[in-house]
Write a structure and sequence with these properties.
Blueprint (H helix, E strand, L loop, with lengths): L2 H18 L2 H69 L1 H45 L2 H22 L1
Length: 162
């Protein structure tokens, strides 16, 4: 027998050894488990993306509704101001000027209140959306400390704004 035959026999023995100890099956199981893990991570990422998309659309819808409500309040206040202005103008010229200034101030207050309400609502929605996303994405051990620090920073920033 020559060296090539011995090498072939050794190779066959090696293959028999691998099959006997089920190495190919073990490799297949490891690859299958890894592919399942990757698939689950992709599904989780898809679910998180869909949830973030829902939060975004809900926030946009609420912002639109708040803007509509603010516009409605402003238009109602302006109509009321016009009606009151016409009635007062008939009665007394000086009274008209005082009423006009008062109504303009009232409209400005309503506008300021509506925009302040809208801004705080959007801030609260953004904070809650950020909390959800951060809670989902961060690991439990790291997220608690990071999340608390971030919330304190956001609260202090909001305190400065108010």
């Amino acid at each position: 027998m020559n060296d090539t035959a011995w090498a072939f026999i050794a190779f066959l023995l090696f293959l028999i050894f691998l099959i006997f100890f089920k190495v190919p099956l073990w490799i297949k199981e490891k690859l299958d488990s890894r592919s399942k893990l990757i698939f689950n991570e992709l599904e989780e990422a898809r679910r998180l993306r869909e949830e973030a998309q829902q939060l975004l659309s809900e926030t946009q819808r609420k912002r639109f509704e708040a803007e509509q409500e603010a516009e409605s309040i402003i238009s109602t206040a302006q109509r009321e101001a016009q009606i009151l202005s016409a009635e007062v103008y008939k009665d007394n010229g000086e009274y008209i000027e005082r009423s006009k200034k008062m109504l303009e101030h009232k409209i400005a207050q309503i506008e300021a209140e509506a925009f302040r309400f809208l801004r705080f609502s959007l801030i609260d929605l953004a904070i809650s959306a950020a909390e959800r996303v951060l809670e989902d994405e961060m690991k439990e051990s790291k997220s608690k400390n990071f999340f608390k620090v971030s919330l304190k920073e956001i609260e202090s920033s909001l305190e400065k704004i108010r």
